[in-house]
């Protein structure tokens, strides 16, 4: 009998497994339909021995001391401040737009004060800011919007920024100084030995059993448990009762090049050219030394693994219908990016999971009831219950 069945071994599922097992002495079964732990943050050494992120670059940054300290129990860190260049008008310029971006693009030598005035002169009046287009043209005007945002967003989301909620482009600041860091959070670092190693440490506990290559549908009726924590897509949990929630997907094309370095920055964005949105060079993120280098191209797609909930009003309304069902489902807790249909970063998901842990453990024990029939699984199912032994990997 497990106290918890956790669906999904990404940040949301693994943080809860770790807390429940180590702090509350709960027996936890965590399943993932993929062949690995760590969800979208999964990294591994490729055939050339270079550490790569299978699902695209994951850069850790947070303002939360609690989240950083929590994760520090499972990893040391490599200080890393992320930088991005955008290929625009045949030049590579800093992104987010800053003083140097404007000076380089327009052949000017403005100072911070002058660039502020310059951007103000370009900005358009937008009475009510509703869409992603409104956010940008009201800050930097139409020309920079066209050069940096319009086509990138169309590629990334398959939609014009005027059709997308303001939250998408609000995430990207505009700076009038020369700060070229992509993020300004207090804590910016990469797990020293990678994300997967960090997750292995989180899940390395006798109370935690990990079952990979397993869709929870295949085991849910056979393995007894008291409560479920679900971190997969919420619409899938309810058999798409109200229809599919739209997600944007990506195809990752990984390549290893026979040269030590490739890009002028860890990530180069291509807003206007090519079918891919950006290229990442992993060694720049991980600090690994190697005579070759590995890169990844990202091609946005409509179909495929669900990566990005699409932020549009009608999708939020559809999600709210699923949320109501979720709230009414006893002993199942929905947490994480897919289960709450929110565009969360890793640190936000960790915070959400820690908050749920607190809520679960404040709940009186008596209220927890067995909700599944106690059917002992067949030998083949039970054989798949393989406790992970990181030492052997
Ligand atoms: C391309 C890309 C780049 C990103 N870059 C960053 C970044 O730089 N910084 C940052 O902070 N965040 C980044 N993120 C966001 C980050 O990936 C998420 O915040 C984080 O992975 C969410 O964790 P999660 O546990 O909610 O979901 P996930 O990591 O998606 O984990 C959910 C798990 O559930 C499993 N699952 C789903 N359905 C089932 C089922 N039926 N049965 C069994 N298992 C199931 C899935 O296989 C998956 O492993 C990025 C995301 C993407 C897609």
Characterize this entry briefly.
With 393 residues, the protein is α/β, with parallel strands linked by helices.
Number of strands: 17
Distance between the amino and carboxyl termini:
28 Å
Strand content: 15-25%
Give me the CATH superfamily of the domain at 2-37 and 203-241 and 310-386.
NAD(P)-binding Rossmann-like Domain
Helix-strand pattern: EHEEEEHEEEHHHHEHEEHEEEHEEHEHH
Write the layout of secondary structure elements.
Elements: E1 2-7, H1 11-24, E2 28-31, E3 43-45, E4 51-53, E5 61-62, H2 65-71, E6 77-79, E7 84-88, E8 91-95, H3 99-106, H4 112-122, H5 132-157, H6 167-170, E9 187-191, H7 195-203, E10 208-211, E11 225-230, H8 234-237, E12 247-257, E13 267-269, E14 278-281, H9 282-286, E15 293-301, E16 308-309, H10 313-328, E17 332-334, H11 346-362, H12 379-383
Parallel strand pairs: 1-2, 1-11, 2-10, 7-13, 11-17
Antiparallel strand pairs: 3-4, 5-9, 6-9, 7-8, 12-15, 12-16, 13-14, 14-15
Helix pairs in contact: 1-11, 4-5
Bound molecules: flavin-adenine dinucleotide.
Structure description:
The protein is an alpha/beta fold and 393 residues long. Among the domains are: 2-37 and 203-241 and 310-386, 3-Layer(aba) Sandwich (Rossmann fold), CATH 3.40.50.720; 97-170, no CATH class. Helices cover 32% and strands 20% of the residues. The chain contains twelve helices and 17 strands. It has helices at residues 11-24, 65-71, 99-106, 112-122, 132-157, 167-170, 195-203, 234-237, 282-286, 313-328, 346-362, 379-383; strands at residues 2-7, 28-31, 43-45, 51-53, 61-62, 77-79, 84-88, 91-95, 187-191, 208-211, 225-230, 247-257, 267-269, 278-281, 293-301, 308-309, 332-334. It has a seven-stranded mixed beta sheet. Strand 1, helix 1 (11-24) and strand 2 (28-31) form a beta-alpha-beta unit. Helix 1 packs parallel to helix 11 and helix 4 (112-122) crosses helix 5 (132-157). The longest helix has 26 residues, at 132-157. The protein is globular, with a radius of gyration of 23 Å. Mean pLDDT is 92; it is low at 366-393. Bound molecules: flavin-adenine dinucleotide (FAD). The site of flavin-adenine dinucleotide (FAD) has 33 residues, from helix 1 and helix 11. Residues 7-13, 31-34, 39-41, 55-59, 215-216, 231-232, 250, 307, 336-338, 344-347, 349 line the site of flavin-adenine dinucleotide. Keywords: FAD, Flavoprotein, Isomerase. Residues 147-343 form the UDP-galactopyranose mutase C-terminal domain. Its cofactor is FAD.
């Amino acid at each position: 009998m497990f106290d918890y069945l956790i669906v999904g071994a990404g940040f949301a599922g693994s943080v809860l497994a770790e807390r429940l097992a180590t702090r509350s002495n709960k027996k936890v079964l965590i399943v993932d339909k993929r062949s690995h732990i760590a969800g979208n943050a999964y990294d591994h050494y490729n055939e050339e021995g270079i550490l790569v992120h299978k699902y695209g670059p994951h850069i850790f940054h947070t303002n939360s001391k609690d989240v950083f300290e929590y994760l520090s129990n499972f990893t040391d860190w490599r200080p890393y401040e992320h930088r991005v260049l955008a290929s625009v008008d045949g030049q590579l310029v800093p992104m987010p737009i800053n003083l140097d971006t404007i000076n380089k693009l327009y052949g000017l030598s403005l100072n911070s004060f002058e660039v502020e005035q310059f951007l103000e002169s370009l900005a358009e009046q937008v009475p009510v800011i509703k869409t992603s287009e409104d956010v940008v043209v009201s800050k930097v005007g139409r020309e920079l919007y066209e050069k940096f945002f319009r086509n990138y967003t169309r590629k990334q989301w398959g939609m014009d920024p005027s059709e997308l909620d303001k939250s998408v482009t609000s995430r990207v600041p505009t700076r009038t100084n020369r700060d070229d860091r992509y993020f300004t959070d207090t804590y910016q670092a990469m797990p020293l030995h990678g994300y997967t190693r960090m997750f292995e440490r989180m899940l390395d506990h006798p109370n935690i059993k990990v079952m990979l290559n397993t869709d929870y549908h295949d085991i849910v009726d056979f393995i007894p448990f008291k409560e479920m924590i679900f971190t997969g897509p919420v619409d899938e949990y309810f058999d798409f009762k109200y229809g599919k929630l739209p997600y944007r997907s990506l195809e990752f094309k990984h390549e290893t090049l026979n040269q030590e370095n490739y890009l002028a920055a860890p990530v180069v964005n291509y807003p206007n050219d090519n079918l891919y949105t950006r290229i990442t060079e992993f060694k720049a993120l991980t600090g690994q030394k190697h005579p070759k280098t590995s890169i990844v191209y990202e091609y946005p797609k409509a179909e495929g693994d669900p990566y990005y909930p699409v932020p549009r009003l009608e999708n939020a309304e559809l999600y709210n219908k699923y949320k109501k069902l979720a709230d009414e489902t006893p002993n199942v807790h929905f947490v994480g990016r897919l289960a709450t249909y929110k565009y969360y970063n890793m640190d936000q998901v960790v915070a959400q999971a820690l908050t749920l842990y607190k809520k679960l453990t404040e709940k009186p024990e008596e209220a927890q009831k067995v909700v599944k029939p106690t059917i002992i699984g067949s030998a083949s199912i039970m054989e798949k219950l393989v406790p992970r032994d990181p030492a052997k990997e």
